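User: Structure please.
Assistant: Input sequence and predicted structure:
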Amino acid sequence: LYNDQRISVTASGIPGCVTSTTATSPNVRMIITTMVTPTVSIAPVNQTICAGSNLTFTATPTNGGNPTFFWKVNGVVQSGQTGTTFSSTGFTNGQSVSVEMTSHNTCQTTNFASFSSGTITVNPNLPVSVTISGNGTLCNGIGSGFHASVTNGGSSPSYQWLLNGYPVTNNTVGVPVYVYAPNTALNTGDQVSCRVTSNVTCATNNPATSNIINITRTNPVPPS
């Protein structure tokens, strides 16, 4: 048989009181459906995320025929997850997501297909903090300098020094960015702080703002 072929049957030698001794049935049209093999894939694969981040996987079926999906994490079926997507914020390092698909085609070589996402890498969250040190009590006519110490700043954090809450530029030649040595005098009532932006992966509290050092100016006292 082949596609679109017509099949009928003719009966002859029909006895009795009939108008004809032969009869032919209506044609039956043959429709031949090609056998298909269902497959499924999911994306993304081998994903790297920060702890607590939402990660969504999407299944893409081929020859699914209105399929049903079953999602698994490390081989454990996730209850109620039967759609084309699966999301979670609770992944841990080294886990793997897989999907199993049951297909519903008329002619298929199998009704089952599966796919694995590969390993999920979960990096820990790293809180960024910065503390500045320096003498806030200054004698009149004496300069000042402040030093920033950063936790989880990464390989090249950026520093923004603040004077009374406003950004300032450290114009002193040769002074590193983590040091504030203003070339103009600070006055009583001034407040010095620093804001640091980390480039570390999975940084939290980023950018971070330091403690405040309050400035007090005093007149030098001659010894006697």
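The longest strand covers residues 55-62.
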